[in-house]
Specification:
Helices cover about 40% and strands about 15% of the residues. By secondary structure, the chain is of the alpha+beta class.
Length: about 220
Amino acid sequence: MGSESKNEGFIALDFARIEPAEEQIRRANEFFENLNKRRTVRDFIDEPIPFELIEKAILTAGTAPSGAHMQPWRFVVVRDPEIKAKIKEAAEKEEYESYHGRMPARWLRRLAPIGTDENKPFLTIAPYLIVVFRITSIEENGETEPTYYSQESVGIAVGILLAALHNMGLATLTHTPSPMKFLQEILERPRNEVPYVLIPVGYPAPDARVPDFKRKDIKEIMSVI
C-alpha cells in the first residue's frame, strides 16, 4: 500500500542515454560552438519571421524547471505596431532618465564600451517583442498563494528561450529598462505579473555590428574541488 501511494501521480522517466561517450562529446562541442556564436543584437531588420518559430521557442522555454512546478512565467508576444510604438516611447522615456541622472558613474562607465544610450529603435523595427513576466502569486480556492523560487525559475526559462531562438537562427536582445512597470500597464497585465525582461526577436541587419568582447575562460568561471 505504501509503495503504491508513493508512486501515485508519477510516470516512468522518458530518458534516452547517449552512447558512446564520443557521441556525447561531439554533441556537447556542437552545442557549445553554436551557443558561443550567440550575441546581443541591437540592429534588426523588419523582415517577418514565421510565428511558429516564436511559439515553439516559448514552448521550449516552458520546459524549464520551476519551484514546486508552479511555472511562474507569462510570455506576452507583441507584434502590433501601435503597441510596439507605445512600448518604445515609454522605454525611451525611462532610459533617458536613467542615462541622465539615475545611473551612477560606474554603471555608465561599464556601458560606454557597448555604445548604448536612451534611443531604442529596435523596439519598433524587430518584428516581435517577447515580454516575459514573472508571476508572483496565484489564486486558488479563494486564497492567494505565492509562487516559490519564481525569480530563479523565470531566469532559467529565459535562458532556455534565448538558446532556442538562437538555435533557430534568430537574433535577440535582452532589454531591461528600469523601472519596467509601464510594460504591465501598456500590456494590461494583472498585478501579480511583474515585468522581468523584454526581448526583441528577428533577423539582424546586414550591417549589424557588436562589441568585440571575449567571454571568460573556463578557468575563470569554473572551480573544481
